Amino acid sequence: MLLIVSLTAVAAPPPAAAAQASAAVTIPRGEVLRLSPEMTAFLAENVADGGPADARLHSLMDALFERGELGVSYSNERTTTAARTFELRSGNCLSFTLMFAALARHVGLEVRFREVGEVLSWDQRGAVLLNNKHLYAEVAIGRGVVAVDFIPGADKRYRQPSLVDEDRVIAHFYSNLGAESLAAGAPQRALADLEQAIAIDETFGWAWSNLGVAYRLLGRPEEAEQAYLEAYRLDPTDATPLSNLASLYAGQGRERKAARLERRVDRHRRRNPFYHHRLSLQASAAGKTKEAIGHMRRAIRRAPDDPRFRSRLAELYRSDGRREKAERSLELALLYSSDPEAKERLERLLAQWRSGGEG
Predict the structure, then answer these.
(1) Pick from 158, 138, 153: which is nearest to 341 by CA?
(2) In the CATH scheme, what is the code of domain 2-234?
(3) What architecture does CATH give domain 273-354?
(4) Which of 94, 269, 231 is CA-nearest to residue 173?
(5) Which residue has the higher pLDDT, 209 or 73?
(6) Which of 55, 195, 247, 303 has CA 20 to 30 A from 324's CA?
C-alpha cells in the first residue's frame, strides 16, 4: 500500500505558533531496513548459507509463508520498518516488502523493487481520501527474476510497473507515514516525514503532493500551491495534485482557475479505468446495479485485458439476473488471468455458478 492523499474537506488550520516548525523525523533512515537479532536468528535457523540462489529463495519463502511458522497476515494499518513488521507478523505491502528485502539481502539474494502506479483501491478517512497504490519486490535468479508480491486476493497483473531504486522505496516509507498522519488529523507530525521523503528523493511527485496537503492543513496556502505544482511537473499523468490544487483555488475564491483545473482533472480521470471502477463500486453500494454495470464496462473499454474488471462485471451481471453474460464475463476473466491463485478461485466460482450455486 503506497498512499497519495486527496483532500475532500479542509479543517481550520492549527494556531500559527503550532505550525512554525516540524517535529523531528519519527524514525531514523537507518532503522527502515535494519535486521533485528530475531530476524538474524530466524535466517540462521531456516536458510542455509551458500548454495544456489533459487534454493535460498525457496527456503526463505517456505519459512515465511508456506510452513506458517511466523503466522504473518496482511494489514492496511500503519506502515512499519522491516524489524517492526517481523515483530508484529503483520503489515501492508510496503512493510512486507521492506521486511522481505532485509531478510533476502542478508542471505545474499539480489532484490529489486517495482512500483505500481495504478490506484488499486481508495480509503476515505475523515477529510482525506487515500489512494492506495502498490510496491513489490523481485529477486534475480540466473537470467530471470521471481516476483515476490504481498497483496492478497488479487490478480497480480499490473500495467507497466516501474523499476525503482532503494532511495525511492525509503522515500515511499516516509511518504506513507506522512499520509497516515494526515489521515489521523496530524499534519504537523506529517510534515517532518514528508520533508524527509523529499530530501531522500526530490523527484518523488507523490511525496510533493502529500506535502502540499500538509501545508494546506497547516494554513500555508502559498507553499501548498508550489508543492502541488511541483508534484504535477514531476508526474503529469497523476491527477491528484491537480485536484488538490483546484480545491485550493476554489477555497481562495479563484473560481475560474479552479474550474479550468477541474476540467483537466475530469479528462485525466475519464482516461483512467480505475476511476470508472471506483464509480462502479459506489453505484453498486447504492443499489444502482445497472449504473454500476455501465461504469464497469467503461473501465473494461480502457483496460480490456484486466481480469479484475472482468470478474467484477461478472458479479454485477449475476446480481442483475443476467446469468449468461455473467458466466461469459467470468470466462474472459479466466482467460486474461495470470495469477494461479486467482485462476483457481475463478474456476471454482464458475463451476459453482454452472451447477446452480449462488457463489
Answers:
(1) 153
(2) 1.25.40.10
(3) Alpha Horseshoe (1.25)
(4) 94
(5) 209
(6) 303
